[in-house]
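Put briefly, the fold is written as integer tokens. One such record reads:
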Amino acid sequence: MRSQDYQIGQRAAPGGAGIGVVEGATVPKEAAFGVRRKGRWRWSVLGLIVLLAIESVISAFTYPFFSLALNAVDLPAWLVGLNASLAGAGIIFVGPLLPRLLSVIGPSRLTALLFALSLLCFGAIVAVDSLVVWFAARLVMGACFAALWAVNEIWLNGVVDDARRGRVLATAMVVYTGAQFVGPLLISVTGVAGSYPAVSAMLVLALAAGLALLIRDDGNIKAASKEEGHAGPDFREAIAENRALFTTALLIGLISATIQSLSPLFGLDSGLDVEGASQLVAVFGLGELAVVIAIGLLADQFDRGQLMRLSSIPTLLIAAALPFVSYDPSLFAMALFFAGGILGGIYTLGLIVIGQHYRGIALATVSTGFSIAYSLGAVLGTTPIGYLIDLVGSKVLIPSLGVSLVALGLVVLGWRKAQPVASLTRRDRTGAW
């Protein structure tokens, strides 16, 4: 990583993050306090990664839990699907409120509140046997889990110093993705009948809320907002300044959701059984686990904007290969493996660059916009592609994915340094994308 980037990160990092003390030198009071906080910084990072893992496990648990429980009462399939879509739509409604909430009450209490609201939703479906409650709980829970993901991304980006940002965020992404595999497996332990599954989830959520309150380092989010003396950029300013960034997130959300939702249908039509078709999604997730850490390590050593542009090469290669490998299930699975890795890597690079160049409420605003763009892609993208599959068959998935990957590759390849709009909450923008 360039020394200039390191200096930028050190000026903006929380006290004690990556700061050394020269023996015999006079240590200012603030620096001495920062050194004492070094251990707290490490525990904060560990605690935040644990919170991300818990949110990932319970969020992934809710998908089969709600679907199977509603199917058990003979609810029509389209209503089961509608219930599932409510979970993904939550961030669109709550996202614009997050920067203000973070600046007012701070990430620790906001995280604890979101876990507590999710706990109450599980309690409501146990206490009240009503489909209205189940749908309302799913909407609120989906908003809470999406907000928890965004808040913890912002919080972790604020706590970590720039010299370690790549490896820490990559580790968090890998843990989050790995935890998603655990959630559905819990169904085999808890089942979906009775109060046991909901109560089990409530206990885990209560522990998470308590852990959030124990993490005292707020990543300077509230402090930076007070120093800057204004609310920071709104979403229109954030979008104007980061069009390519948000377009990238939207396309990643669209492609990821399409692969996760529709590739099993393609697998079935290609001759795979149900187990083999579902494994295509697992292979896609394994790609993210395998590749993201490497990209995070590279991001701490090399220019991050250049890494983003270089990521267009494997993206375009995968798009070009899809028509030729789609006829062989093994080769198609390999393409999905690499697609999972590169999509997760580009998403992580986006988070790293946001954390490098923003702080305070601007960090919260841009990070939230990034999450909303991803969710919009995930919610809106699968519907038209699914409609095309209904019209002409699952083979249309391949050109649809190819076109989407080409669009993503061109967006990151064409990234150019641009003069940002004025913002007191932005860090030094030298070397930005």
Notes: The chain has two domains: 40-219, 222-433. The domain at 40-219 is CATH 1.20.1250.20 (Growth Hormone; Chain: A;). The two ends are 15 Å apart (CA to CA).
